[in-house]
Amino acid sequence: MRDTSRRGFIRQLLLAHEPGVPAATERTLVCVFLRGAADTLNMVIPCGDDHYYKARPTLAIPAPVLRNENDLNGARLDDFYAFHPRLSPLLPAFKEGRLGIVQAVGTDNPTGSHFEAQDQMEHGEAYGRIIGGGWLGRYLRSYGTVELTPLSAVAIGSTIPESLRGAPTASAMESIDEVQIKTPLNDTTAVSSVLSALYGSEVGVVSQSGKTTLDLLKRVETLRGTLYKPEGGAIYPDESFAQGLKEVARLVKAAVGLKVACLDLGGWDTHFFQGGSSGLQADLIWQLARGLAAFDADLAGDRERVITLVMTEFGRRIYENGSLGTDHGRGFAMLALGASVNGGKVHGKWPGLSEEDAPGASSLNIAGPSGLKVLFDYRSVLSEVLTKSLGHRDVNQVFPNFSPEPVGLVG
Amino acid sequence: MNSSRRTLLKILGLTGATLPWMSCERLISRVTRELGQSIPSHLSIPDGQQIDPAFHLLSRAAYGPWPGDLDRLRAMGTGNWIEEQLAPENIDDRACDLRARRFETIWHEPGTCYEYKKPVLREEITRHTLLRGVYSKRQLFEVMVGFWTDHLNINLEKGDCIYLKPADDRLVIRAHALGKFKDLIRASATSPAMLVYLDGKENKRATPADVPNENYARELLELHTLGVDGGYTQSDVFEAARSLTGWRLRTGWRKGTVYFDPTMHDDGEKHVLGQLIPAGGGAADLDRLIDIACGHPSTARHIATKLVRRFVSEDVPAALVTRVAEVFTATDGDIKALVRTILGSEEFKAARGLKFKRPFQYIVSSLRALGADTHAHQPLIEYLQRMGQGPFQYPTPDGYPDRAAPWLGTLLWRWNFAFALASNTVPTVTVTLDQLASAIGAIAATADGAVSGLRPDRLIPYFVGRAGSAVELKALGDYQAQRINQVADANYQAELISLILASPAFQRC
To answer: Is 0.95 topped by the overall pTM?
Structure first.
């Protein structure tokens, strides 16, 4: 059951004190970054392409034998694709049209470097064209600063990701409950005013962060310590990723003006012993799918105003390497979850698995590692989400000098 | 093996009892105080409007001053201090050894480490690192150990790394931290922990149909040597991976030791970075590859850039990078020469207070400034973990970032640490504030000699290396006026010092 009275109460509290308070229709973008280059070929499986099975004699996920979703080998999505069996918690969202997939998304980054590719994507840049700040930072800047509070952009964890670089305000936290000053005297008024004087008198990033932190402390006071009850029968597994999503859901429902939330799930760099239907990658897929499924259920009443994107820095090679893993590749599949998503299908045509991608010839004499051909620049997908799901008017502010192509994921 | 360890055992023997560890630690704390880990009765404080140059040097080439370090450095002179620190083997570090050497697993070979449980291994290497940071007199050495630990990052939590990292820390990082760059990289290339962390042990090619595992080869070029813009191609990555095939780890007898298996090595001709590695080189291909990569001009630039970023500022002064890169080339990557060049430069001297302390440095410099007594138990480590910089916990091979932005969200956790530390509520950490306050002349007295609070005008310079600004003095003065008659002296003293540790100036160095 939703605690409507509490939400209403908090909203009123905020309305009473703050200008530019979020309306109930306030939209939230949740960005999940799979760090380490996730092998999406083994998540959204092209089981209609024999070449996939040839290139991955030990790692390929068997095609579903039966045309039904209880198939153990993977859950069929359409005539060509199937889900990895550990993605099955997301099958209802797909079937009900809230989960959409875009195939063959990527960047033009030729380095094959995790860190370069992540930075480029988080900055929202073309290769070698530095804009300054992160794409979410620029997105947030398009709001007037009066509208923004330290709860407008929240990164779950201890650090603030590059995508939020340059945001007028952003906070990092593992949970709302831990956001408090603890002094032995249990009286924080005096120390807060000293900190406020010390940080308030300076200019620069340290002082800005200090002010944000002090503001955040004030704002979470009403939320902290309240018992959060997930709705829709959602059960968040006791894993940090899922628990992070729970905190995001809590902020969404509290209507505190959360515009952007960032979460990381790491460990996808599966050069060695990647596993197939079970194993290293399967465990990560399971964390991802169960976390998102709980989030989706919990937010059943707020799906219209929340969209969740799942991305990674690049995909992996089509062929497996000699150590039961896959090396760095190119294109990947991106996932989007929410009522505004044109879901229940895989967008974009299948680029095929070209013969050039054989190990001998492949890695040589091309700009960057080989892998799935990139058909959509990642910024086209992000632009469409900003424009059509979040109602952003001028996407050129976020991705200057870029002309997005229509993807069809949203709207 | 080592005299200090024997000394400790002798002392323990003399007490005539097998003491439980806690009392042993109390004893070590006592003995180390006798050995100089204490607060001198008088400490001078900087008085300029700008950060004192000696304080600056101790903030960058050390993890901040320990009580008395500033006076000592000033007495001996900057140049002498740097040279002393560049020869760590000549520095008597017995007091630190007493605290830090007693962990068994940091001395074991990988095979022996497999006999320990993971939590024990994790705790010992972490405590060792933290204790060395706080108490070692070989501070510059520890700073360089931290630098190379990031540069050649290994996460304890991947695969079997936890069993193998203690040997990597000792035989790769610490053995070469101030040695030759090429020796460091060569040692890392066949370090069991690195062979697991970046999958080198799985990189094999018995037949041309086998696909090499590129993971280590890529990071060797991208992170460890040339840098991502260093001019290598994807073909170079592939050819480097071929050169590195065949290095394996034993799994049964002598578990965790390295051997070269010629049947798993691709012994054909390779072309890396425009140079030829002839066919038939076998195990020597690795040496040849390391020579080529370490000798590449991009490597000199990459390492120079990273060192300058660490010691000087996030925006690296281009002229200094060029000079350091030239020294790298001229000295065949002599790390001491690189550090000497940086610390002696005008750019270094000018860059005072420009860096944002990372959590490890924040915590260690706080402990050092207060002359804290700790054996680095879990409660202290938890503060570091909450700020996101637990030793050996960074997941990806690029190491903890050396820029301010990712760490700016950690202020609240720093403030909470400051309040807990100064009030002696971090379990297992003890500080003695009155002794420190008295040494720096910060105890205010009325005309008749009665104690009447603390003097922020003397405390601030001690902690931040310059005179307090008008804003700082007013903020702390207001606090004092409001608080002094409200709460007990000890609480108020602790809170006042916490506020200095929580202030923006102490976040920087």
So the answer is: no
